[in-house]
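Hello,

Following up on my earlier ticket. Below are the two sequence lines again, exactly as submitted.
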Amino acid sequence: MDEREALARLADTLPGAGDDCAVVGDRVLTTDMLHETTDFPAGVDRYTAGWRAVGASLSDVAAMGADAEAAVAAYGAPEFDPGEVDDFVRGAREVCAAVDAEYVGGDLDRHDEFTVATTALGETDDPIRRGGADRGDAVCVTGALGRSAAAVRAFEDGDAERGNELFRFTPRVAAGVALRPYATAMMDSSDGLARSLHQLVEASDVSDLGMDITESYVPVDDAVREVFDDAEARREAALFFGEDFELVFTLPSDAVDDAREASPTPISVIGNVTWDGVRMDGEPLPDRGYEHAGE
Amino acid sequence: MDEREALARLADTLPGAGDDCAVVGDRVLTTDMLHETTDFPAGVDRYTAGWRAVGASLSDVAAMGADAEAAVAAYGAPEFDPGEVDDFVRGAREVCAAVDAEYVGGDLDRHDEFTVATTALGETDDPIRRGGADRGDAVCVTGALGRSAAAVRAFEDGDAERGNELFRFTPRVAAGVALRPYATAMMDSSDGLARSLHQLVEASDVSDLGMDITESYVPVDDAVREVFDDAEARREAALFFGEDFELVFTLPSDAVDDAREASPTPISVIGNVTWDGVRMDGEPLPDRGYEHAGE
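Thanks for your patience. The regenerated structure is below:
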């Protein structure tokens, strides 16, 4: 059973699964495990690791349209180098501060492989779920895609400074809260744009739902153009690589202007909710995302 | 830097650290990472692993005197065997149900070593911290100690059924809530009784605080007598081994009767808060606990 099948199986049995966070009364709660071989390329420093790991959980809070309250992290490593632990905590605190949340600590565990489990807590009375898209809605994303793919390439090219810079991101909590009155369905883009669109379609109760998007409307991060020479690699980075932590969402098309006004992060309309499957420029868009190494 | 030094260092820099949970408004939040080589002896089944891992975080909620609301777990393993994942989730759900909390899901991660990170959320307006012990208070524990030491021995002896049974425990959430009006300081006994007493003394703002406990008052689990033949091994199991998840707490001595009446779990008074260090039967009790293998 691969990770995706196993997650789908869990979603069937657990009331809170299937969204970016579980909903518990007026709170949302999410947890993620990241580890060295699959999530932190060689060159990622502990400051960036703390920022990114905690940021990934805060992004899940953002995807529910919730205010971010707090985060914790469990840090497993072969050695507890004081400088490394301090750097990790500094990154964790700074990403929390960037979204008005508090980093409130965690656990340390001696582990053969650098492994981090992060948890974030958010608050909302009216969470935005994945399942609310309806025909006629606009399909949108915040910010720009492909930044993490560019970061991984920078690490591969030995430019760790640039890689670390690109690997840190601001979770879209403020945008998620601003979109709360408008969005009908929302998730983050950590699995890649293509797979996110498929997931929003699958989560909807509306039968025969689809999305039609236009490739030239998909916002691509400047770093992608810097780092990748050919068009195919740029396309892969923006559409499929994922790990970008932007928000992918739908909203009634007459609410786009108000949502744009309200959101502190730029919003791009990339298409519409239609019939029967996900298409880009009229062709089926494969339900394919980033596969972690080793899967 | 060992795990303890590193945790102490973190506690100095993080506002929420130093108690069993971080306090976030009217919520408490805690996370723990457990993994195969140090936390799950050979023979632990996935049902027990799910129960115990989630239970460990719920025990931290109990130690704050909070109501338990919800828990999540990140599950890392080399393979996602459907039966194993289901068993883990069943254990996680059942331990949550035992304390009126809800298991709301988690994350799956492909990992070389079986690794679990659990997080629990609780609610209280008035958390019980570690730092409130004062001279004249009674020193108490819930239930009985040594059960986990007995479980590990059962696993070593090849009696996995007995080991698994002893490894599952009911987190003391109901007792923690019942003790909220009375307890001046509280933590769970996961680091062992001796170390817990030292930690309660260190956390107090009162200078020259101490505790005097009487060994014969320390409640020892029946399984310890079953499994260990000699007195020294039994003593080690009850005082130092830890991983037992009972509550260790202090309260004014005139509140003991009311607390006993209120708590659904039996309470044993094992000594008093006094002057200058932790002693048992007049002799200094070493600040020593269970050291995980490999540290």
